[in-house]
Specification:
The complex is a heterodimer of chains A (about 110) and B (about 190).
Chain A lengths: L1 E5 L2 E2 L2 E2 L2 H16 L2 E8 L3 H8 L5 E6 L8 H15 L3 E3 L4 H13 L4
Parallel strand pairs in A: 1-4, 1-6, 4-5
Antiparallel strand pairs in A: 2-3
Helix pairs in contact in A: 3-4
Chain B lengths: L1 H9 L5 E5 L8 H14 L4 E5 L10 H9 L3 E11 L2 E7 L5 E7 L2 E5 L11 H7 L4 E5 L32 H15 L4
Helix pairs in contact in B: 1-4, 2-3
The chains are: A alpha/beta (about 110), B alpha/beta (about 190).
Chain lengths: ~110, ~190
């Protein structure tokens, strides 16, 4: 199974719940012999992607665009739905944050997984 | 349910629509959103307001999913709304005491944080007027929405309370170090 963790950052700073989510994914991966991928989205966040790469993950996905500098639900849904469709994870995990609550239901609906 | 709608009418709403189904409590947020979307689409709406989350399951998804089904923009945890022509200026609540000010075009769906307004009392005049206002009841089956559940609640329970006392031993310096570690990594309060 492939597990994808969507890490959250704002203005280049991690939301710490991202790492709790990563840890949860690694725990599930251990119990189900799965692989963990991590994704970071924004603008100018390549450095954060490098940081994720050092966190015992199989791969890191990086989505960058000028329009993703500030969070918008539509921008994030559009970009993440494309990334998830091409990465084809069986399970996508998010940190439970205000931002995630703002777009995750819509993203799930777009992917037909609500 | 009718009573809730009647209260809203007494407090100033013009008319009410009741989508009726005994199984609504078992319905997942997507099922609720799809049902609402059919009824909302019939209306010439500019703005749909929902609560942030329900008091029972507290999924907090119905408003966002409704926007997705209606294919209109949305914003959540709204603390203030200012309509300016075909767009709105909104104040959103973020984490750790932060607020965000955004603009959003109409039509849109907003989910409202509690405390945005002081709930007004229904006046006697309002209660009398409400009696003449229309409440339309629509059976959910008639909306043609799939009743297939995409999620199912297996169990709901009250968290079990446990009390545990732990004594830290060692020199004051060691105890202090252990205490800091526990506060930081277990209680996570510092």
């Amino acid at each position: 199974m492939k597990i994808l963790v969507i890490a959250e950052q704002r203005q280049g700073k991690w939301n710490n719940a991202s790492f709790e989510t990563l840890s949860a994914a690694q725990q599930i991966a251990k119990d189900t012999s799965s692989t963990v991928s991590a994704l970071v989205i924004g603008k100018g966040v390549a450095g954060l992607a490098d940081e994720l790469a050092g966190k015992n993950v199989a791969e890191v996905l990086l989505i960058q665009h000028d329009l993703l500098e500030a969070y918008t639900p539509d921008g994030y849904c559009g970009a993440l739905s494309q990334a998830i469709k091409s990465a084809k994870p069986e399970l996508v995990l998010f940190p439970h944050t205000y931002q995630v609550r703002d777009f995750a239901p819509k993203l799930a609906a777009v992917l037909g997984k609500a | 349910m009718k009573q809730t709608i009647k209260e809203a009418l007494a407090k100033g709403a013009d008319r009410g629509i009741h989508i009726a189904d005994d199984n609504f409590a078992q319905l997942d947020p997507l099922g609720s959103a799809k049902s609402l979307a059919v009824a909302v689409k019939e209306q010439k709406y500019d703005l749909v307001l929902t609560g942030l989350q329900s008091d029972d399951h507290g999924f907090g998804q119905t408003g966002v999913l409704l926007a997705s089904v209606l294919d209109v923009p949305h914003a959540t945890i709204i603390m203030a709304i200012e309509v300016d022509g075909q767009k709105m200026k909104l104040k959103r609540e973020l984490e750790a005491g932060w607020f965000q000010h955004i603009e959003c075009p109409l039509p849109a769906v907003l989910s409202i944080q509690s405390g945005i307004n002081k709930v007004r009392y229904a006046t006697l005049k309002g209660i009398m007027a409400a009696k003449k206002k229309e409440i339309r009841t629509i059976a959910r089956e008639s909306l043609g929405v799939s009743t297939e559940l995409t999620q199912r609640v297996e169990k709901i329970y009250v968290p079990t309370k446990t009390k545990k006392t732990e004594f830290l031993t060692g020199t004051p310096k060691e105890v202090a170090a252990k205490l800091v570690e526990k506060l930081r990594f277990e209680a996570r309060v510092i």
